[in-house]
């Protein structure tokens, strides 16, 4: 079958013009690429970035996602304007579930999943996530992130399963296998050393010899490639001062020669623009280094013309273009996307899949198993649900805060509980469990109630990428308002259970010391009831 595919790819290639070939290497963002553009230029792929939706409508329905995917597909196979008629593929960031779509199941972020230490669970989550992505007729997930977060001041620490390379190694292949078994293309990212930058600076410089880079940050790629991962995304960071997007040693010699990767490499968002001497719409160096598909969200048309000119000028060899296009076509054939027809054909009963009860139950299981108990004086936990409690803190009834970044919007901000139909907050989960047992949850303000415990839910506000970089791991260094709340309750003689929402381990000694029990809930996502 492989030989059939390579023969078919060779035949396709022989019939393609240089413009058609370069077009296959271009991925534009849906805000800047219309189906008419696809019909005219024959782009190989589109993506929606974080916080980008059909018609730029945050509340786009599943049917609207599906309709747009079909529109792009129909345009891509229409040769009437001179394209090669090759089916387009749509990539999306399913960071913790299909997080751009209203009503999707939001799984705990990767840092929480790492705390569970169970590759089998990861496989089930990959399956469920891929099914929800397929339900919107999208073929490609830019996941899993297999970063090994080292300096936790990094704003993407929560996207990393662990600082332990062996745990990341055990998760990477499991996730890739389960996603691709659903017919969705997976992406091992960000290659390589995204979690190893100096001071945890996002897109910063990772400084170490190659053998250390591979042993510390490369183990996930070994199992992802063994699981036949179809794509790898190049990383923004530099390696010993050189931007990886232009580094041939890593993108070709190591990734292909040493690690044996056979799929295609996609660049990150305007990542080629950071390569010395390059722009967002031109970078022969990146293509020659081994980038096969360029994520050029906005300047895709200029990129197309520039790159064709660079080939004609001899800055990029035609054989390099043929190699890149062959890899892209090979993946499209291997995933059945060349013969599948409309993407909606794969989106079986979409309304029943997004936020499906069994997916939410799986997410709730993950939440429960991800909780880390740091302190439990006098066996205060588990609480007796028949007791009387009050719940405090800005994280108590805040589904956006408990979900973190990459949640509907890119930064995970600007959402309200109403944006999460079917989801439960930590507070609503506790209220449900207590009511079921005949207990009581009283308003936080009531002073005179005799409480069996106070529950305080506090922690980080949502953030994504560079916006999450911090200078210090000390929690609320300047304004210890959470500590004050805990101490006020403790001073009233009330036992305090602290629940900490965070994308990374932080320095919370004072809050720990002031609490009778302390649980790290990480970023649990839509199923806050898993905490109860
Ligand atoms: C972002 C991230 C990358 C994501 C891509 C598309 O900047 O670095 O992880 O897949 O752009 O949203």
Figure out the total of helices.
Answer: 19
Specify the structural class: alpha/beta
Fraction in helix: 25-40%
Mean pLDDT across every amino acid position: 97
List the ligand species: alpha-D-glucopyranose
Rg from alpha-carbon coordinates: 24 Å
Query: What spatial form do the alpha-carbon principal axes imply?
Result: elongated
Strand order of the largest sheet: 12-17-16-15-13-14
Strand tally is 17
As residue ranges, the low-confidence spans are none
Report the major sheet. Answer: 6 strands, mixed
In what range is the share of β-strand residues? 5-15%
Q: Could you tell me how far the N terminus lies from the C terminus, measured between alpha carbons in angstroms?
A: 50 Å
Task: Give an account of the 3D structure.
The chain is of the alpha/beta class and 532 residues long. 37% of the residues lie in helices and 12% in strands. It is built from 19 helices and 17 strands. Strands 12-17-16-15-13-14 form a 6-stranded mixed beta sheet, sandwiched between helices. The chain has a 5-stranded parallel beta sheet with strand order 4-3-2-1-11. The radius of gyration is 24 Å and the shape is elongated. The chain starts with a helix and ends in a 10-residue tail after the last strand. The model has no long low-confidence stretch (mean pLDDT 97). The structure holds alpha-D-glucopyranose. The site of alpha-D-glucopyranose has 8 residues, from loops.
